[in-house]
Amino acid sequence: MKKLSLWLVILLIIISTITSFAFNGCAPAEVEEEATPVIEEEEAPPAEEEAPEKIKIGVIQITLEHEYQVMLNKGFIDKAEEMGAEVILCVHEMNPENCVTCGEDLIAAGVKAIICAPGDPASWQAVLAMCRDAGIPLLNDGSPQPLEEGVVPFIGTDSRGGGNFAGEFAGNWINENLGGSAKVLGLTLPTFTDCVARNEGFNEALYATATGEITLIEENGHGLREKGLEVGENVLQAHPDLDVIFGCNDDSALGAMSAAQAAGKDPEKFLVIGFDGTLGAFEEIKKGGMMRCDIVQQPYLYAQMHMERAIKIARGEATIEEYQEIGALYIQTPVVIMENVDEWIEKVSAIMPK
């Protein structure tokens, strides 16, 4: 009986163990719930706003053959790039009809202002009439013109004052080296108001400074080196005793100087004076030959000032009337001679396109 009870207890223990195993061992493993990550939609980047169309500024230049005009052009372009504008260029090559055509073409191209160096007073008036009709400002570069409605005043060289400096230098040199008397060739450009003023200033100071007799010969040098050479050759044939050449720009002066050199003029007793401030003139001064003086313009500066005004008016940040109240700005001309020529070579070399 006791044995039976013992086996019964053992049997119950086995059954209990099996049952426990069945329920616990076969139960599914508890699954930890993982949070489903919420993937936020990336915000679409804001649509890129289209850059506003660049304001177009028209520029009418005389030529791009002269170093002065190259520096002027670089000033226009550099300032326009700095201020986010575009330059549309037209060159009239000192032809008044081309100047008028330039005005027509630039307005058709959609410019918002025109900076103009006039071909002559009549072509200036024609371009001004077009600008008024188009409702855009006209800025006066190159040579002073009368102040009228729609015109932003002249910024540029004090041409008459610069001519005075040249005439005074020539008079003093004539006094010191030629006893006060000399035969002088003045190369002009009658269609260009600034050149007329330079020659007038030169003549005025020359007569006031020289102590002896001055014989003045004036010829149109056309502002070009080859024309200056041609005129110089002709004048030297007619007047082999010529002593002094003044050119209303460097190219005409340098061209005529070549004629004097070819004619065998003594550089110790011959004087050439230019007006521009180009590297070519500076290099001749540095050589210590006939060219002893150059009157310096600052075209890079003028161009930047004009372009800034043009863009500000086009953007509505300034008005023509505000600039008319300021009036014309005549910038004094430095005088370059042997003593300061190296300084000016360095300055102009830094501006000229490489």
Task: Give a verbal description of the structure.
The protein has 354 residues and is α/β, with parallel strands linked by helices. It folds into 2 domains: 55-156 and 299-330, 3-Layer(aba) Sandwich (Rossmann fold), CATH 3.40.50; 159-296, Rossmann fold (3-Layer(aba) Sandwich). The protein has 12 helices and 13 strands. It has helices at residues 2-25, 67-82, 96-108, 121-134, 159-177, 193-209, 225-238, 250-262, 279-287, 299-314, 320-326, 341-351; strands at residues 55-61, 85-91, 113-116, 138-140, 151-152, 155-157, 182-188, 214-220, 244-247, 271-276, 291-296, 329-331, 335-336. Strands 8-7-9-10-11-13 form a 6-stranded mixed sheet, with helices on both faces. A 5-stranded parallel sheet has the order 2-1-3-4-5, sandwiched between helices. Helix 2 links the parallel strand 1 and strand 2 (85-91). Helix 3 (96-108) packs parallel to helix 4 (121-134) and helix 7 (225-238) packs across helix 8 (250-262).
Short description:
The chain is an alpha/beta fold and about 350 residues long. It has helices at about 1-25, 65-80, 95-110, 120-135, 160-175, 195-210, 225-240, 250-260, 280-285, 300-315, 320-325, 340-350, and strands at about 55-60, 85-90, 115, 140, 150, 155, 180-190, 215-220, 245, 270-275, 290-295, 330, 335.
